From TrEMBL:
UniProt superkingdom: Eukaryota
Subcellular locations according to the entry: Nucleus
Keywords per UniProt: Nucleus, Transcription, Transcription regulation
Protein name per Swiss-Prot or TrEMBL: Uncharacterized protein
GO biological process, one term: transcription by RNA polymerase II
Record-level GO cellular component terms: nucleus
Main location: nucleus
Species this protein is from: Meleagris gallopavo (Wild turkey)
InterPro entries: TFIID_TAF13
Pfam families, alphabetized: TFIID-18kDa
Length: 263
């Protein structure tokens, strides 16, 4: 009876959770955009560019490395669309060719601010991204018990992207009201950050869920990273988001803490 009552509460606030998370995501991405605009103004630029966002992310090596890989694959995809052969892809990885514009742009900028060589080293770094790896394993575990219809829906959902509807995404961020507006590459990065925000909220939701589940005999269990949390179906994620929502409503989670997950 308790379980049934508990799930009734969860489903009753389902819509509120969706509305709140949508607003929270907009706040996080808008914060990123505003910070980038401030950096752009400081350097006297007329537009917000990729350099401004890269500058903001320079201290978080893991997030920056993940973004650089995304920029490389965006270039890679562009080359495939243009019909360039695979052999040329490897040879031109760091060339000045226009098809490598994102990668070269990032490399040139990071080279200009890199004092120690740490930032440029990321272009050659093949280290496994633990967070990304855990997310992939988590997604794989979800598919094990799916039938063909569920799997098809799952695959379709994973292809969703903010970058596919660039004009709507720009309107969503209300870029038209800004004095300094983001250029095309900056919008790609913002779309990536919006997508990444969803993943971070899932990580945070699972962390909150874990923190609310006491473990006998382990006084440090609450300190375990969200990176290593495992779950097996989407219901648990829904429950986790419900935990976040209820804690926020009770004043136990400050919105500024959630916004700290942005760059």
């Amino acid at each position: 009876q308790y379980i049934n009552f508990y799930y009734q509460i969860i489903f009753s606030i389902s819509n509120k959770i969706g509305v709140y998370l949508k607003r929270l995501q907009m706040d996080m991405v808008s914060t990123n955009l505003q910070q980038a605009a401030e950096v752009s103004q400081l350097r006297g630029a007329r537009v917000i560019s990729a350099e401004d966002l890269l500058f903001l992310m320079r201290k978080d090596k893991k997030k920056l490395r993940r973004l650089l890989k995304y920029m490389f694959f965006r270039d890679y995809k562009s080359k495939i669309v243009k019909g360039i052969e695979e052999d040329d892809l490897i040879e031109d990885k760091f060339s000045s060719n226009n098809t490598n514009k994102r990668q070269k742009l990032a490399q040139d900028f990071l080279n200009s601010i890199d004092q120690t060589g740490e930032l440029l080293a990321m272009f050659e770094d093949d280290e496994i991204d633990d967070v990304k790896q855990e997310r992939m394993e988590r997604a794989e575990r979800q598919t094990r018990m799916m039938d063909s219809v569920q799997y098809a829906e799952f695959c379709e959902s994973r292809q969703l992207s903010f970058s596919k509807k660039a004009s709507k995404f720009r309107d969503w961020l209300d870029c038209s009201s800004m004095e300094i507006k983001p250029n095309a590459v900056a919008m790609e990065i913002l779309a990536y950050l919006a997508y990444e925000t969803v993943a971070q909220l899932v990580d945070l939701a699972l962390l909150v869920k874990q923190d609310m589940t006491p473990k006998a005999g382990d006084p440090f269990s609450h300190a375990i990273s969200a990176t290593f949390i495992q779950y097996h179906n989407s219901t648990e994620v829904h429950v986790a988001f419900s935990h976040i929502y209820m804690m926020i409503m009770q004043g136990n989670v400050n919105k500024s803490v959630l916004l700290s997950y942005s760059i």
